[in-house]
């Protein structure tokens, strides 16, 4: 395998300590150079400033993505309008049917949408979706994943999560290797979503306050709601199409540690989350800073 085989993509938001650890460890243990693209979703904690000086990382700001999205939408509208004018008898009125307006910043910054945007720009045979709170602990983790995927003829290789309560089964995107051509052909998406069978329950679900953070126990109040976590839809499509995928073999899984939830809920009441999750985040933050000192040493 060579650096031309895979592009690394990462979506992040307010995860500065984790980002520092992730990429310090990644470049130390996986010499490439690999193409690495990180989209920042409007961080206010210095995450973007941490990323921009890194050699080997192309950091993309939310402002850049919003501007590009507006340009792309404008080009699409012009192209569709041209088709309507050139073929007035087709009766489809494409321009009217497709004019949904430009997506707002919140839609553009959604985690799954960000990963979709990044993977659409990948030109290598494989793409590795990497969370900003993964610490690679052993040399050659990415080489090992690529070799295994090629040897087994896999379209997807990552961590399988069977779900929790209402969460759908998925291949977790925090370290997920995908064959780029399959993503293109099947139209696979990282975007999550939810399905609620009971109309009254659906109204309550949609009426949740802004920035509402779902704890697992909260799903007890929404018994018919099925939550699609990020990449669950992708996993279900792979299974439905009979595409070959695999959970990480034990020897490869042992090469990295996923801190997880480091950027969920923050450290203060204003940032949401439960008191327990904030306490866990504080402990993780201390562990990350300790690991970073070891790297610097």
Could you name the key traits of this structure?
single chain, 297 residues, alpha/beta, Spore Coat Polysaccharide Biosynthesis Protein SpsA, Chain A, 7-stranded mixed β-sheet, two-stranded antiparallel ribbon, 11 strands, 18% strand, globular
Q: Any overview of this molecule?
A:
This protein has 297 residues and is α/β, with parallel strands linked by helices. It has helices at residues 16-29, 47-51, 62-86, 94-98, 105-109, 111-119, 141-152, 180-186, 199-206, 232-240, 250-253, 275-296, and strands at 6-12, 36-40, 57-60, 126-130, 134-136, 156-161, 170-179, 193-196, 225-228, 245-247, 256-258. The strands form three sheets. The chain has a seven-stranded mixed beta sheet, sandwiched between helices. Strand 2 (36-40), helix 2 and strand 3 form a beta-alpha-beta unit. Mean pLDDT is 79; it is low at 263-272.
Task: Tell me the layout of helices and strands.
Elements: E1 6-12, H1 16-29, E2 36-40, H2 47-51, E3 57-60, H3 62-86, H4 94-98, H5 105-109, H6 111-119, E4 126-130, E5 134-136, H7 141-152, E6 156-161, E7 170-179, H8 180-186, E8 193-196, H9 199-206, E9 225-228, H10 232-240, E10 245-247, H11 250-253, E11 256-258, H12 275-296
Summed up, what is this model?
With 297 residues, this protein is α/β, with parallel strands linked by helices.
The first-level CATH class is given as Alpha Beta
Helix fraction by DSSP (H/I, runs of at least 4): 40-55%
Shape: globular
Strand content: 15-25%
Total strand count, please? 11
Quickly give the structural class.
alpha/beta
The whole-angstrom Rg is: 20 Å
Fourth CATH level, the homologous superfamily? Spore Coat Polysaccharide Biosynthesis Protein SpsA, Chain A
H and E order:
EHEHEHHHHEEHEEHEHEHEHEH
Low-confidence stretches: 263-272
Distance between the termini: 31 Å
Compute the number of helices: 12
State mean pLDDT (0 to 100 scale).
79
Strand order of the largest sheet: 3-2-1-4-7-6-10
CATH architecture level-2 label? Alpha-Beta Complex
